[in-house]
Design a protein that fits this description.
The chain is an alpha/beta fold. The chain has eight helices and seven strands, in the order βαβααβαβββααβαα. Strands 2-1-3-6-7 form a five-stranded parallel sheet, sandwiched between helices.
């Protein structure tokens, strides 16, 4: 099976990049012959700006831009999508949000049906989310930040497309041991496809 690991952090020496590398290490250590690709959105200079061409694609009045088609093809090759990102203002960075805005298009990730529920077109794709935050768990719990992130990202984005979220991990760097975080994400990589055959038809709505 094949995994696409997407990392959104401008510093290649960041903890986010280390996390992505350890997820990849886990995939390689699984012993199942699984393959992977790491997409570094900053290094690849992905343009997150939603343009008139993107609006036309959303309305089904024009084709998706060429760079969007490239990203969709990468996801089409994958059985699992791993997003690794720092928490900015209690959500994902604008670069990653723009990647989702542009790539998860109407007609590809889902299909709007007038007067009916949308068709969920990514039921086959398992999602693994690894967010990296700088506050304490007490802060997240007191204000409900992680619950809000889960509702917005896990349910609002991937549930809408029917893609089952297998992992939704929040790693906090202020009070927790960084080495243990790397052990955690390496284990996520090793178990990336566990139970995939029984869950790909799950309705994430």
């Amino acid at each position: 099976m094949h995994a696409l690991i997407v990392v959104a952090h401008p510093n290649p020496d960041s903890f986010s990049h280390s996390v992505a590398a350890h997820v990849a290490e886990g995939v390689r250590l699984s012993g199942q012959g699984d393959t992977l690709e790491i997409a570094d959105l900053t290094a690849e200079a992905f343009d997150p700006r939603f343009t008139a061409a993107d609006i036309a694609a959303h309305l089904r009045e024009g084709p998706a831009p060429a760079d969007v088609l490239v990203e969709q093809a990468r996801i089409d090759r994958a059985d699992a999508l791993v997003l690794v990102y720092p928490v900015y203002w209690w959500s994902m960075p604008g670069l990653l949000k723009g990647w989702i805005d542009r790539v998860f298009t109407n007609g590809w990730a889902y299909e709007d049906m007038p007067g009916d529920r949308p068709v969920k077109r990514l039921r086959h794709l398992r999602i693994h989310l690894v967010a990296i935050g700088g506050a304490t768990m007490r802060t997240y719990a007191r204000h409900g930040y992680f619950g809000s992130m889960t509702k917005q990202i896990d349910h609002g984005i991937f549930g809408y497309c029917g893609a089952p979220v297998a992992t939704s991990e929040l790693l906090l760097t202020e009070t927790q041991d960084m080495a243990s975080h790397l052990d955690t994400v390496r284990a996520i990589g090793q178990n990336l496809f566990a139970g995939s055959s029984s869950e790909t038809t799950a309705d994430a709505a």
